[in-house]
Amino acid sequence: MAFIKTPVKGMNDFLPSDMRLREYVISVIKETYGKFGFSQIETPLVEHIENLQSKQGGENEKLIFKILKRGDKLNIEAAKNDLDLVDSGLRYDLTLPLARYYANNAEQLFTPFKALQIGNVFRADRPQKGRFRQFTQCDIDILGDDSMLAETELISATSTLLLKLGFEGFRVRVNDRRILKAMASSCNMPDDKLSSVYISLDKLDKIGAEGVKAELIANGFEEKDVDAYLAMFLNREGKSCKELCAGLGEHLDLSVAEGIDNLISNVSSSLGDRFNLEFDPTLVRGMGYYTGTIFEIEMVELNSSVAGGGRYDEMIGKFGANPTPACGFSIGFERIITILKDRGFTVPTDGESIAFLVDKKASAETTKEVFETAAKLRAEGARVLIAKRNKNAKRQKELLESEGYTEIKDIF
User: Fold this and answer.
1) What DSSP assignment string belongs to 110-141?
2) CA dist., res. 215 & res. 217, Å (int)
3) Are 324 and 356 in contact (CB under 8 A)?
4) What is the distance of C-alpha 104 from the center of its chain?
5) Alpha-carbon distance 412 to 405, whole Å?
6) Are strands 46-48 and 66-68 parallel, antiparallel or unpaired?
7) pTM (2 decimals)?
8) What is the pLDDT of residues 304-355, one digit of tens each?
9) Which spans in 36-142 are helix H?
């Protein structure tokens, strides 16, 4: 059987230049989030299949890479369903493993606990541009804080990170699942049909109000109720969250809306006007575990979101731990990398980068001097490469220059 040179579809090899950029962005992430008090943790790539299929991950649960049982535990003939064949799987995000982690380790962690995770996740998805089967996620979460301080910190930290990476003018959208429900309920839309309402609302930017209206009527809602529902989204210009929600009456505690207005005010006053932060009642987000505030960051140049998150107060308690409020924000690491590469971003270098190309005819004494010089330069903080000088030295130097070497010396 012939070997195949390409990686598995949807999974990538990374060249040294790719890794330099990725490691640089990770270093900025760690430094920035560290200054906000987030502590880095790590969870396994593999989780129990019962956890992964606990109806917390929405559509992602259909994309799990499942791992067969091993040895005597694997009995294919007697298997009646998947759970008889598999006992674990590769994680599809970092949130569910974090909930399990906190349930196990809460007694050893201070409260509120601010967690930072950076790691690979896996989804058996159909690969396409910007969509992979293995990719890096970066999450920050605050566990044990039921106040808007958590949301404010998460949005402030993530916005600060993007500003440090050179992004400006991005759009931060904020909403709340309770507001979504209250708006629908006030228009006679029953709880058991809210999922279909949200699916249609999420398409507002793509198919317009008339398209959403047609879908909702096709799903059995009365036209007058649909018109009243859409009017709340179409007539929101210049209104604060509290003003927009004022007519929801018994369907919503207005402290929820006040909290969002305060969140927007606090973040804006601390970080200025280098990006747009706004309440957007059309923001839905698809994960089933969100219970309150939700948020997303959009990049104008990408025309899609690069970060998203929200509050998921009920997940940790499902692992048998005490009920624990939780809120998190995940940046689209791969999308950030893609944008930076498209911009031709150059990783800043610390100190000199010097390459010595030693010709095969160089004497032993000359080679010895090169190693002595290189040792001194490294001790002074320089990056120094010693390599054999190739026949095609011109191409060799071009590649070294692309790797960031600013001084290349031929040694004969």
Assistant:
1) -SSEEEEEEEEEE-----BTTB-SEEEEEEEE
2) 6
3) no
4) 24
5) 19
6) unpaired
7) 0.90
8) 789 999 999 999 998 877 899 999 999 999 999 989 998 999 888 777 899 9
9) 49-52, 82-85, 95-105
